[in-house]
């Protein structure tokens, strides 16, 4: 199943989905999430992969230095990858997921 994203508009008291599109229809990796955020001893990295591909998941410190790296081979669809973060000190980090051509990033806090 391919997840979709849409806007909901109220028309005459009824909810009507508009602007419907498939998540990731034009990207290999999309809908990147990390939870919980703030993180504890582990962060769950969740994203949609439009095809099978090997990706890199990196956690970067505030200076942009990679402090945690993992490779992962996706299947098509929603992915969830747990990453151990017990050894990270408190701070703000960037989570980067990429396939060597495109990447997505989000901020995480510990």
Beta-strand share of residues: over 45%
Overall form: globular
Distance between the termini: 33 Å
Q: Helical segment tally?
A: 0
Radius of gyration: 16 Å
Number of beta strands: 9
Q: What would the average pLDDT be, to the nearest integer? A: 87
Main sheet characteristics: 4 strands, antiparallel
Give, in order, the helices and strands.
EEEEEEEEE
Low-confidence blocks of residues = none
Helical residues, percent: under 10%
Oligomer: single chain
Widest β-sheet, arrangement of strands = 6-5-8-9
Structural class: mainly beta
Describe it for me?
The chain is globular, with a radius of gyration of 16 Å. The protein is mainly beta. The model has no long low-confidence stretch (mean pLDDT 87). Helices cover 0% and strands 63% of the residues. It has a four-stranded antiparallel beta sheet, with no helix packed on it.
Core attributes:
globular, single chain, mainly beta, 110 residues
Brief account:
The protein is mainly beta. The chain is built from no helices and 9 strands.
SSE layout and pairings?
Blueprint: E1 4-11, E2 14-22, E3 29-35, E4 42-49, E5 54-60, E6 66-73, E7 77-84, E8 92-98, E9 103-109
Antiparallel strand pairs: 1-2, 3-4, 4-7, 5-6, 5-8, 8-9
